Amino acid sequence: MTKQHTHREQPAHRSTRRRKKKRQSLGKRVLHISLGILITVVLLCILMVVSMWYYGWLPTREELPEFRERLGNIFSQNPNRQLPDAEVIGIDISHYQSYIEWDKVCLYLDKQRRLHRDSTVGRQRRELDFVVAKATQGTKWQDNFYARNKAGAAKRNILFGAYHFFSPTLPATKQAENYIRTANLQRGDMVPVLDVEEYGYGLPEPDSVLCWLKQVERYYGAKPVIYTNENCYLSYFLKHPPLLRYHFWIARYGGLQPDRMHLLWQFTETGIVAGISGYTDINILRGTKEDFLQKCTIH
């Protein structure tokens, strides 16, 4: 009886030790993986801070008060949707906004100038001063919502404009022809807009951009505006003086205006506009309505 009892216990004891070893081994693996993830996250954070410093995205001492306000907007319920005070305000749209209810399009502001989608009591209605819709990209592509958006803005008597997204690998002359043929702008409309960004194939050759601008300028008799983001402006456009004779529309989000001279400022890509589902880019003019009509319309 005793031998049988001992014989039964010994395998059970060895099994228990095996399970303990397995648990210890599993615990070590989990610890190593956790440490690996932690080290990776720390390194990525360091890389992000170094990149922000290198590209000049960290605030200077003078910018710190505005930067704190910007962070507050980002982490609040309504990030980047507090409308700066400006005489001229507009939006830019494309097929990404899909079907727009043009009869409802406007801005609703509360007392803190935060944007809302409906007209609850106490909110101020603010009409848009302009709309710029995507017309073309590359040499053949046309936005299939362009005609609808142009007609919708006309019904609401909102000043209308059209932009072309520049493709760096395609001929500039054919891109200009595609834009002119599709945009069909008239006197009184906004001047042409060229969107230049680092996208997919990198940035285009400056001469190619200049070719598009000159061709469109000759056709309309009006100087186009260049849309780009602040980093692209600083690292690309400032190095090519012939492009600086044009006005710029600069994207910089979070409440801080671009440091450099610009005509238009896209201050958010998460704006709320009545009649448009999802988010919308909202822009303000640096200047008065008279400046806008003089610099931004085809005469």
Question: Would you mind describing this structure in some detail?
Answer:
By secondary structure, the chain is an alpha/beta fold. The chain contains 7 helices and 12 strands. It has helices at residues 2-54, 64-74, 146-155, 172-183, 206-220, 230-235, 289-296, and strands at residues 89-93, 107-109, 115-116, 124-126, 130-137, 141-142, 159-165, 193-195, 225-229, 247-251, 264-271, 280-285. The strands form 2 sheets. It has an 8-stranded mixed β-barrel with strand order 1-5-7-8-9-10-11-12. Helix 4 (172-183) packs parallel to helix 5 (206-220). The longest helix has 53 residues, at 2-54. The termini are far apart. The model is unreliable at 1-12, 61-66 and 72-80 (pLDDT under 50).
